[in-house]
Amino acid sequence: MISCPSDTLIVTFVLKQILMAVSFFRYAFQCMGFSATMEREFVNKDLGPTLAKFGYSDVKLMMLDDTRIFVQGWADTMLSDPQTAKYISGIALHWYNEQLTSPNKLTAVHNKFPSHFLLNTEACTGWIGPSSERGVHLGEWSRGNKYSHSIIENLSHWSAGWVDWNLALNMRGGPNWVNNIVDSPIIVDAKNQAFYKQPMYYHLGHFSKFVPPGSQRISVTSSRYHSLEFIGFVTPQSNTILVVLNTQAKSASISIRDSKAGMIFDMIPAFSIQTYIW
Question: Where is the Glycosyl hydrolase family 30 TIM-barrel domain (predicted)?
């Protein structure tokens, strides 16, 4: 996870563009389609020098801000150029269609450019498919599963954090000026002065609440094949955190072994997420 002293303000600036939106689809909302070469030239000739000239060298500038389908090509084009790389702090990633390419691409980019962080900057459910799949689905647990799966997968491959797109939306999944309705962890029913915490909210909490800033991911191995997903951390307070996700329709028995702390046995219910702290 990314952390800073409590009295420090980190200002980030994302080179906001959606390559897929202008290359493969015709989205109604505003999009700016850079190629990797165009973005490289913009950073090293215009944006980077301008920020430095006016005293904003401490701004954390993130490149790409699109799906990991493009991450290797963009990283090679931009970060292999020293004049561009010196202005870039990290690589911003969206989760859309990430299942189409291996998360090992993130590890490859980290290994090649270890001084530049990876950060998942946008995710939401209900964004694609027929109208019945779009927008708000109150209480749909599978959407929470998708969040936790993505978080575990990306953080296991060197992403430093994971950011939801929407803090709260209305009952329809808006407002949005081009009717781009989606789902959100919190849904607000303004008419009845109420709000609902979706399963996504509670899935996010297993990471945002139990994995504090400054935590470091640690290796966790399994002795046999199973369908559980898991990830481990050590916190700044030296606590060990283990998050386990079960997306299957049946429960699973597990044993957790720590060479220093000992061993426990537990049952992971079907369609559940559990966090262990010791």
Answer: 26-211
Report which of residues 143 and 167 the model is more confident about. Answer: 143
CA–CA dist 98, 95 (Å, integer)? 5
Residue 9 has pLDDT above 70, yes or no: no
**Does residue 176 have a pLDDT over 90?**
yes
Alpha-carbon gap, residue 63 to 118, rounded angstroms:
10
Question: pTM of this prediction?
Answer: 0.91
Per-residue pLDDT of 215-233, as tens digits, reads 999 999 998 778 999 999 9
pLDDT at 160: 97
3-state secondary structure the chain: CCCCCCCCCCCEEECCCCHHHHHCCCCCCCCCCCCHHHHHHHHHHHHHHHHHHCCCCCCEEEEEEEEHHHHHHHHHHHHCCHHHHCCCCEEEEECCCHHHCCCHHHHHHHHHCCCCEEEEEECCCCCCCCHHHCCCCCCCHHHHHHHHHHHHHHHCCCEEEECCCCCCEECCCCCCCCCCCCCCCEEEEHHHCEEEECHHHHHHHHHHCCCCCCCEEECCCCCCCCCCEEEEEECCCCCEEEEEEECCCCCEEEEEEECCCEEEEEEECCCEEEEEEC
As a whole number of angstroms, the distance between CA 164 and CA 94 comes to 10
Spatial contact of 8 and 213, defined as CB atoms under 8 Å apart: no
The per-residue pLDDT for 28 is 73
What local confidence, expressed as pLDDT, does residue 25 receive? 61
Give exposure, 212-236, as e/b (b: 16+ Cβ within 10 Å).
eeebebeeeeeeeeeeebbbbbebe
